[in-house]
Recover the amino acids of this structure.
């Protein structure tokens, strides 16, 4: 929440509490001027307190949310890199096997193609393109 929204929220809330404070003070004192003075002084102090509290609360809440998002992003990024490295290792291992299986070869090529065109993996395109080139080169001339 930005500071302008917090300020407007504070002002609306204060109008409500001034009215309630005025009514309460009037019921207790029986004097409208005294009730008005007490409610205005009390609400002025409480307005500053509320605005400060709300601002601090919002700051720390947003900070915590940002940290949670960063942690989740880092976790996913690390998991994704491990997965890509694992697939690259599998494709290298496949290329070293004497027996050739066209279904596995085509599946790995399809994996590379779909990964390269995936928008969510654009940061890894260069790695994936290089791995596909290496995979194709290692399997060039094998019996299909």
């Amino acid at each position: 929440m930005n500071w302008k929204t917090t300020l407007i929220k504070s002002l609306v809330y204060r109008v409500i509490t001034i009215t309630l404070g005025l009514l309460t003070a009037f019921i207790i004192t029986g004097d409208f001027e005294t009730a008005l003075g007490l409610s205005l002084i009390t609400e002025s102090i409480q307005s500053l307190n509320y605005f400060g509290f709300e601002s601090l609360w919002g700051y720390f809440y947003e900070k915590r949310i940002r940290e949670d998002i960063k942690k989740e992003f880092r976790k996913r990024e690390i998991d994704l890199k491990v997965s890509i490295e694992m697939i690259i290792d599998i494709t290298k291992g496949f290329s070293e096997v004497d027996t050739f299986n066209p279904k596995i070869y085509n599946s790995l090529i399809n994996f590379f193609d779909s990964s390269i065109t995936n928008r969510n993996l654009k940061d890894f395109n260069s790695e994936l393109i290089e791995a596909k080139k290496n995979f194709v080169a290692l399997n060039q001339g094998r019996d299909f």
Notes: Helices lie at 3-29, 32-96, 102-117, 125-138. The chain has four helices and no strands. Residues 32-96 form the longest helix (65 residues).
